[in-house]
Hints:
The complex is a heterodimer of chains A (306) and B (300). Chain A has 306 residues and is mostly helical. Chain A has a domain at 99-303: MetI-like fold. Chain A has helices at residues 6-34, 38-41, 56-63, 77-80, 97-129, 135-147, 154-163, 171-179, 182-191, 196-204, 209-237, 240-246, 255-265, 270-290, 292-303, and strands at residues 66-68, 71-73, 88-91, 94-96.
Amino acid sequence: MKTKSTGYRIFSTIVIIILAILFTFPLYWIITGSFKPAKEINAKSPTWWPQTWTLKNYQTLMSKQKAPLWEIEVPFSRYINEDGNPTVVSSGPTVPGAIRWLVNTVFMAVTAMILTCFTSALAGYALAKKRFIGRSIVFTLIVCAMALPKQVILIPLLREMSGLKLYNTIWAVIFPIVGWPFGVFLIKQFAEGVPSEVLEAATIDGASELRTFFQIVFPMIKPGVGALAIFTFINSWNDYFMQLIMLTSTRNLTISLGIAKLQGENATDFGLIMAGAAVAAVPIIIVFLVFQKYFTKGITMGAVKG
Amino acid sequence: MFKRKDGMSRALVRRETIAGYLFMLPSLIFFLMFVIYPMFMCIYTSFFDSTMGRAEDIFIGFKNYIELFQDKIFLGALRNTLVIVLVSVPITCLFSLWVASAIYDMKGWACSLFRCIFYLPVVTGSVAVTVVWKWMFNNYYGIFNYVLKNLGIIEKNINWLGDPQYALGCIILILLTTSVGQPIVLYVSALSNVDQSLVEAAEVDGATRNQCFWRIKIPQIMPTTLYILVITTINSFQCFALIQLLTSGGPNHSTDTIMYYIYYTAFKLYRYGYGNAMGVILMLIIALLSAVQFKFAQTK
Lengths: 306, 300
């Protein structure tokens, strides 16, 4: 491209670099802040780089609120027991609250990811390739639902979850994520690229619908499913709003929610809060950096014919 | 609607329909139960006086809606929400278009590096981002006051988040940093899909760089722009974590948004019907705006 003059090019590169530094600064401030002693945190003139490094903030974080590492419940036992509490068959050793919150968050994000990918792959394929009656109605419904803000349904959702005895369980956060139709939409865009001749050939050869899906369609839409997986994982990790309204007891919190509660209780202990923020943000940033390529694809694919 | 292809027998149609719905079933269960049903209930309950602890909801017709438009806090929240949307959406679009056009023809690694960096605030998560900004804006220990004072721009420390004059501006600033990531990714991919032969042909005909950009590239990335407008608008309307963690709608409800006020009504006042009426209003506004944006983009 010879169209851009050198002068403009240099100018824009410099501005971009400055902006990039400003955009990375909050993250830099979280991580360095989490290692600063209280003296530096509460100084009138902040230090750009920690003068003394300390782990004290992390130690304080880990000394707060204890919870068992895991609790495995008998499925559906909360519906059978008289008091409405589930029967716990196994609970792990007592660990700091933050560790349990991480376990909860990973469980939530992974489960939401698997369920979303499974349901969306099936439905997206059907929408793209099956000529069934009512297909366009279902599709219109999905597109309309996507354009509406999901947060406005918080009150009915809350009551529904209490009715289903799912309030204050991790499932109350997972199910609405799975129900959100973005994944179906995304996979549909992708599955349209599967050639119909291949599917017809499979049918003529006598392959069952499910076999056609798993052996022929799924390998072809795998990149789309991968993009959706990483997209769902990161978004559900950071879906603070749903977590806030659905989860209450300490042992059920997610890491973002835990940090938000911590901030409410220790509003001025910025070192401690930064340690919490680092624990919440660093794992997901690493996941993002590793799977960046798929993630970018997920975003751009959703926009095609959006 | 469903179109019957020639040669598609009735048996085949039936087979396809059954298979189609069976494939859709797992997804439809979640979609109907946790998206459509609550949406329907949101509209339904908005006509009731529904408060926590009361055994039955009482039908009151449009009373919730009438009360809404006399509620000063709601009108303030509506105003703030519109200010946030009207300021942040155009800035987000223009800023990300500029960044994208500056980075898309850089070397491959540089382009993905910058794309990554501008996406970082989104991945970091609203809670972590908000708590660090809260510290940076802090009256006594914040880096903002320190830097601005050293540069001689301000004389006294400013209580950024505690002053109604500045609080909303601070919220918009943070919102901007967390909302440009996705548009930049989209614009970069749209710009690299622009038909290069058109650009070259125009250059041969003596078009300037600016003409190329506005006359050829902009129309070609119009669909992307429309998509970005819609998602950014929805995102700005949903701005919640920032408000809740930074100011809790304060000082004195001056930074309430509709989303935060719905939350407040449901969890502090326990007035579910009233909150749902606000939800319906929000849905209507967004539907209307999306429709306008579509119309606007089509006529262009």
